[in-house]
Amino acid sequence: MYGDIKIAPSILSASFMRMGEDIAMIEQKGADIIHVDVMDGHFVPNLSIGVPFVKDLNKIAKLPVDVHLMISNPLEELPWFINAGAWSITVHYEAFEEPESGIPQAIQMLHDAGIRACVSLKPDTPVEVLRPFVKDLEMVLMMSVYPGFSGQSYIEGTEDRIAELVGMCDELGCEVDIQVDGGISEKTVERVAAAGADIFVMGSACFTAADPQVAMARVRELGAAAGAQAAEGR
Ligand code: DX5
Ligand code: ZN
Predict the structure, then answer these.
(1) Cβ atoms within 10 A of the Cβ of 183, count?
(2) Which amino acid residue places its CA nearest to atom 9 of ligand 1?
(3) Active site residue 37
(4) Using one digit for the tens of pLDDT, what is the confidence trace for 12-60?
(5) With bands split at pLDDT 50, 70 and 90, how would you rate the model's confidence at 234?
(6) 179 and 141 Cβ atoms separated by less than 8 Å
(7) Does the annotation count 136 as an active-site position?
(8) Around 13, how many Cα atoms within 13 Å sit in the side-chain half-sphere?
(9) In ligand 1, which atom is closest to the CA atom of 148?
(10) Which partner for 116 in 13, 138, 147, 160 could form a disulfide, CB atoms 3.0-4.6 Å apart?
């Protein structure tokens, strides 16, 4: 929410055969956070990596590890991921059978372990569902594509959903980091930053760039300028 801009490359777009080198590369080239996409082939059609990967990543990562869980049964699986370690863990609102009771439980489990709690919404889930929980979260992850794959196009109108979340937080008198994930590049970052997002996941726009350092710096620069300008007018 109009905070310091942070760049979070998604290693789903890295080479799985050269993962260690790709992680060292983004750490040297200006990333702030390492975004890890965990997919179970059930909550989303794709299958990616799991607990052993996250555990080993935490051993080598110099930057904070941000785990985005796209999995069913988050309450059952969460202890495993908490044990693997993370700076932040994101669960999907839509993954809970009973979100009203399940999400507070997940937040409590994460906070008890000293891990930042984040809830994510798919593009068609109303922002209003966050109202009961948002004050207890460190971050909201607003999906700007349907979760499951990197390389998709940004869904227009996500910026309005971010603005709605900012309005809700203003009304409730709380602050939350707003991460946006899917199709973020120098072409789309300004509109989401102007709306109030401050943590930008970059998958393909980072790893397929001729120079990832330049790509990350450009998104940071454009995002910071658009965010600062919008914050002044508030
Ligand atoms: C999609 C994942 C994203 C994805 C982003 O389900 O959550 O993190 O890897 O990739 P790009 O930036 O290419 O859309
Ligand atoms: Zn993600």
Answers:
(1) 23
(2) 150
(3) yes
(4) 999 999 999 999 999 999 999 999 999 999 999 999 999 999 999 999 9
(5) confident
(6) yes
(7) no
(8) 23
(9) 6
(10) 138
